[in-house]
Amino acid sequence: MYSVERKEKVFKTFVLLSVLVAPAIIIGMVITLLDGSILVLSEEKLNFFTTTNWDPINKRFGVLVFLVGTFLTSLTALFLSLPFSLAIALVTAELYKKNKIANFISFMVEIISAVPSVVVGLWGIFFMAPVMRELQLFFGYTPYGTGFLTTSIILAFMIIPFASALGREVILLVPEDIKEAAYSLGATRFEVIKKVILPYVSTGFLGGVFLSMGRAIGETMAVTMLIGNVNYFPENIFSPTNTMASIIANEFAEATEEIYISALMGVGLVLLISTLITSVLGKWVIKRLTY
Amino acid sequence: MGDKETNVLNKRLIFNQFFNYFCLALSVFALLPLFLIIFGVLQNGIGRINLSFFLENQPSPSNSGGGILNALLGTFYIVSLATIISTPLSILAGFYLSENRKKRFTELLYSMFNILQSIPAIVIGIVVYAWVVRPMGNFSLLSGSAALAVMMFPYISIAATEMFSLVPNNLKEAGYALGAPRYRLFFKLLLPTSLKGILTGILLSISRVAGESAPLLFTAFGNPYVNFNLNEPTSSLPVLIFQYAISPYKNWQDVAWGASLVLIISIIFLNIMSRYLLKVKKN
Fold it and tell me: A191–B126: do the CB atoms touch at under 8 Å?
């Protein structure tokens, strides 16, 4: 039999080790990706970030198209989902608070996040792309179906659960008494929202925007299935392009040469750093609000 | 009150009502794609669902029938193993985070879990490729589970932290007052009282990772046959759906729809079940 002290010590060590797994994984990831991309970075230097020529056969690797593709699709998606996410946040946290309607809507919104990304992509290919094709024909563009706008719309839909939950959280942070003060002065619901709630939570929303942006940047499967996968900048709002996540999903399995794998690891590194920045910034902004 | 003032008041009230309905309309409109997706999956997938769909392996391009047995079992094994890997670590990590609340260091650690949660699945996929697949020499079930375990770890840890924090302080203090060591307190008091909540967290995190294909693309990869070997590539439902969805064969696309229906129903079922568990606990 071990003594109680001994057991206590072993237990404490295990607990501490378990909690340290999280930082270890994050640091390990950064190191692995840095180490993996050294080859391509020493070969291409800054050209890796500033050129658009992605040509595995001739071993030229520039990721600018994917960088731009990722940020443009995510920004557009964010912009498109903003009114809807805000409306859902307002309905569930203020307008119909603790009401059956609000419960139903927040339940359904959570179901959205339960739908796997590849299923959304599958639906996008067979239902949304044909509609977009008609739209493109109507406006006189080449009817690809898949492409920038298709992806952005799907992405906007996919970040709604996340963005509206964040919105809801910050709206619930508004102190009851300042709302009640406004109501007692005869303000209507709309006026309370416009003059009290929205100004109060504006910083929180900025944090939410960053966090949702991080979500959209990392979204892979649906984007891979709908972006069109061509390595040039979108010419118009409908054209196919590529993102960092989709280039990895499409090409990593077939990359055999060291430098090719290294280039894709480099893309992964940029992707990781982008999401780290958005999530740290977002958390920081929201935290400043709560204090 | 003069006529003018009544008018202004009426306008404000009408506008207020309009705003209410406008927000409601936007919310419902945002749900429209969800209904269309569920309808589309039902419409295209239901025709494939029969017994042989669950008992046959995935078809080759020339075959007409086929099922999802290999992918279904694959997903089951990969996810179970990932749960087994991540659950004990997560629970202990959750214990640390809840016991050491309000310390600067703990806050920093807690934010690490949040950050880990926000790392894209595809990045986890390539990192686990470098960590497990490369040293082992081939795609494998084990590497797929490792990738999903990395995704589940922060989710379960955060859920466990919340559940442990809900245990009343006087209960813990009573334990300490009796001179109970920390590990006893953990196994005899904290774990039993928060078991249901933690179970909910585990189920929710399973429902979250079961539909992920990005981390499995370069780890578990795929396999046209049923595989139980930890060291061999293994098929999974999400990866199968991805590969078949972008294929040119009608039969494969049909299988993808059927597989989507099975996947979506299982995930939504898990999701609702875990919610139900949580409700029972609250009552």
Answer: no
Minimum-distance CB partner of A218 among B122, B183, B241: B122
CA–CA dist A160, A173 (Å, integer)? 20
Q: Which of residues 210-249 of B touch A (CB under 8 A)?
A: 210-214, 217-218, 221, 238, 241-242, 245-246
Task: List, for residues B74-116, the tens digit of each pLDDT value.
Answer: 999 999 999 999 999 999 999 999 999 888 999 999 999 999 9
Burial of A199 (0-12, 13-18, 19+ CB in 10 A): exposed
Q: Give the residue-averaged pLDDT of B162-187.
A: 90
- Please name the amino acid found at residue B204: L
pTM as predicted: 0.94
Which of A14, A111, A280 is nearest residue B268 as measured by Cβ atoms? A111
Q: Give dist(CA A104, CA A74) in Å, integer.
A: 28
Distance from CA of A172 to the nearest CA of B (A): 17
Residue B1: pLDDT over 90: no
Partner-chain contact B211 A118, CB within 8 Å: yes
Predicted complex ipTM exceeds 0.85: yes
